[in-house]
User: Fold these one by one.
Assistant:
Number 1:
Amino acid sequence: MKILVVEDEEDIQRLARMSLAHAGQWQVLLANDGEECLTMARREQPDVILLDYIMPKLDGFRTCQQLKADPVTRHIPVIFLSASVQEHERERGLALGAIGYLLKPFDPLQLPQQILDLLAQAGSASPVSS
C-alpha cells in the first residue's frame, strides 16, 4: 500500500515512516506541506493520504478541499492527523471529504491498524494487512 504522509514536523514524519515501514508492505511517501501534497498526490496516486491540519503554505483543510475537487485525486482517501481535539475541526475535516481523523501524538504500534480500520470503515480497504 502506498501512503502519502503530509506533515511539516520532521520528528512526526520520521515516527510515521518508521511505524508504517515496520508494519511491512507499506510504501511511505513524505510531503512537507499542502502544495507538495497536491503535486505528489497527482503524480504518485497514493492509496491513502495522512494529512496534518496545520502546515505552512497550504493548510490541511484547503489541501483536502483541493484534493477532493480535482478529478485526478478525489478518489484518494484522506485521513486527518492533528494534535487538536476540537470537535468542530474534526467535523470540518469530515465534511470536506476525509474518511477519518487521528490524534497526535499517535501510538506508532497502532498507527498502521488505525489506518486500515478507517479504510475498511470507508469501504476502501486494501488487501494489504498489517
Number 2:
Amino acid sequence: MDDRSYIIILYDFYGELLTDKQREYFESYYFNNLSLSEISCNLGISRNAIHKSIKLIENKLYFYEDKLKLYNKSIVLKDLTKNLDEDIRKKIEELY
C-alpha cells in the first residue's frame, strides 16, 4: 500500500480527532486533489502555512495509529473473522 492510501485510511479512522480547519486542509489536499498553492489561494493563507499544516496533520494521524492501533486491529479482526459463520461474521463486521 502506498503512503497516500495509508494516510487516507488513517484519516477515516482518526479524522474526527482533528480540528475543522485541519479536516478542511486535509480534504482539500487529499480528496479534492488541490495543490498547496490552490488551497492557499482559496483560503487566503500562505502556501508554506498549508504545507506545514498538512505535515502536522499527517504526523498526528501516524501518531494516533502508533498509540491506538485501530487500523492494525481492524486488519487483525478481519483476518480472524474470515473463517467464521457468515451471520456471525457480518454481525462482527457491523461493530467496526
Number 3:
Amino acid sequence: MAIEDTFVMVKPDGVTRGLVGEVISRFESKSLTLAKMRMLTIDDEMARRHYAEHSERSFFGELIEFITSGPVVAMEWTGESAVSVARTLIGATNPAEAAPGTIRGDLGLLTTHNIVHGSDSVESSTRELEIYFG
C-alpha cells in the first residue's frame, strides 16, 4: 500500500444541509489526514474544468448548474490508499444504491444531490487538486 493524496468536495447540498463536519469526521475516523481545505463558490469556468470528462453527456448542464449553485468545501486528504478508502467511504453515486454506512447511503437524497465528490483515481486526484489548490 502507498501513501496517496485524494480530492474530496462537499457539494452545495452538503454545505446547505450542514454536513461538512459529518463528512470530515468520517474521513478522520478512517485515519486519513486533512492536508488542505477551502470553502468557495465555483464559477462556470472552474466547473467546466472539473467536469470536463462529462462535457459531451446529456446531464453536463445540470452538473454545472448544481455545482455552481452555492458554496462547496474542497479538501485534500492524505493516507494509505487514500483514493480507494475515500471512494469506499463515499459510496455509490446513486444514494438509493449506496451501502448503509457510506456517506451517500446514510445522507444522500438524489443522484444529482449526493453530498460529496471524490476522485476516482490517482490521476483524477492530481488533476482535481491542481484545479482547486493550484
